[in-house]
């Protein structure tokens, strides 16, 4: 017991978020057991791993706070961790919960030095770039996910199901309040069971990516073969201002996921979903990059062909396709980074198992 007071406090109140935010830069690892013999391992600040006593076949990662001001997912994960620690939820599966960027959560900012969600799949190693707290954290988070997926007990059941749900909220409102980004699968089929789980989470709008990315969800999918998603649950709000009733379905589905053999779902029917693919990514090239629509224009808004959407010095970006819709517009990103995606409706076209 290297941290009796921290340990005692955590055992008493189950408030792992409080422990994380009062030690935002690091936390010495420590372990303890719950009354049902689940082993709880704190690996670092914002990193808590649960190993149930019984044999398991699922390795579940829930992450939040990769962007520090996206508070609803942080509250959802903090509640789940607290309920596990206080015995209100009994786990069926192995679980790793990650609070991505604690200093940014404390600062109520998306990022401190740079966007953590652009630094995965080794992007943090770029030696041409000045080191940052986010680069260090991305490297550690990659390590923790790898350690989690590779450390199931030899006696545990195989094959294992690996998943990672990286929970976010978006800067803007959205025509479809909740939506998911399904990382590029390199031509492998999409998974019906995952669409069914998303629907149980109240998420029926899915953006099917067609290229690799440096996001956390693509890293888990591509490096570890996990069913991984970025899930946008609504619009960014400060702590205390989230209408938690908007998250009832996702909270129920996540609780079922970790504590039951199966989640209550309905059979996949593509017609129940709004599926999109990327038509083009618009990257910010100069500091002159400017959006030509208002801040309250929602994600998935479409304009007539020819409408001026953005300019970047001399360059103009206009709507090229009927039905082209904008998503994640942000003029404040660093130069070279994605400032907006233009998406078009698509189908899974039978490539689903
Ligand atoms: O609302 C916005 O502009 C950004 C919301 C957000 O953080 N989205 C993620 C999506 C990640 C992905 O493409 O999988 C991000 O931009 O990192
Ligand atoms: Zn985010």
TrEMBL record:
**Pfam families per UniProt:** AstE_AspA_cat, AstE_AspA_hybrid
Q: Identify the InterPro entries for this entry.
A: AspA/AstE_fam, AstE_AspA_cat, Aste_AspA_hybrid_dom, SuccinylGlu_desuccinylase
Q: What pathway is this protein a component of?
A: Amino-acid degradation; L-arginine degradation via AST pathway; L-glutamate and succinate from L-arginine: step 5/5
Its domain of life reads Bacteria
Give binding positions for Zn(2+). Answer: 67, 70, 168
The family annotation for this protein states: Belongs to the AspA/AstE family. Succinylglutamate desuccinylase subfamily.
Q: What is this protein called?
A: Succinylglutamate desuccinylase
């Amino acid at each position: 017991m290297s941290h009796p007071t921290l340990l005692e406090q955590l055992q008493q109140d189950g408030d792992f978020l409080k422990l994380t935010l009062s030690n935002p830069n690091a936390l010495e690892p420590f372990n303890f057991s719950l009354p049902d013999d689940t082993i709880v391992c704190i690996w670092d600040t914002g990193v808590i791993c649960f190993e149930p006593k019984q044999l398991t076949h699922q390795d579940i990662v829930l992450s939040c706070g990769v962007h520090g001001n996206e508070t609803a997912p942080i509250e959802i994960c903090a509640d789940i961790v607290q309920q596990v620690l206080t015995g209100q939820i009994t786990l069926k599966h192995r679980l790793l919960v990650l609070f991505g960027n604690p200093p940014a959560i404390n600062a109520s900012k998306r990022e401190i030095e740079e966007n953590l969600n652009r630094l995965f799949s080794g992007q943090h190693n770029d030696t041409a770039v000045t080191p940052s707290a986010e680069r260090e954290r991305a490297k550690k988070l990659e390590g923790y996910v790898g350690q989690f997926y590779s450390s199931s007990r030899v006696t545990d059941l195989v094959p294992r199901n690996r998943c990672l749900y990286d929970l976010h909220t978006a800067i803007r409102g959205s025509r479809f309040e909740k939506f998911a980004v399904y990382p590029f699968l390199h031509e492998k089929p999409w998974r019906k069971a995952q669409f069914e789980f998303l629907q149980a989470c109240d998420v029926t709008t899915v953006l099917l990516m067609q290229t690799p990315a440096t996001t956390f969800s693509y890293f888990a999918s591509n490096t570890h073969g996990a069913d991984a998603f970025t899930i946008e649950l609504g619009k960014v709000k400060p702590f205390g201002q989230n209408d938690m009733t908007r998250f009832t379905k996702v909270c129920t589905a996540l609780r079922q996921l970790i504590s039951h053999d199966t989640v209550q779902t309905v059979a996949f029917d593509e017609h129940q979903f709004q599926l999109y693919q990327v038509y083009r990514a618009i990257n910010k090239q100069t500091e002159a990059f400017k959006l030509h629509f208002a801040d309250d224009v929602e994600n998935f808004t479409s304009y007539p062909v020819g409408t001026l959407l953005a300019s970047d010095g001399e360059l103009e970006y206009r709507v090229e396709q009927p039905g082209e819709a904008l998503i994640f517009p942000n003029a404040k990103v660093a130069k070279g980074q994605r400032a907006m995606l233009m998406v078009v409706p698509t189908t899974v076209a039978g490539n689903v198992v």
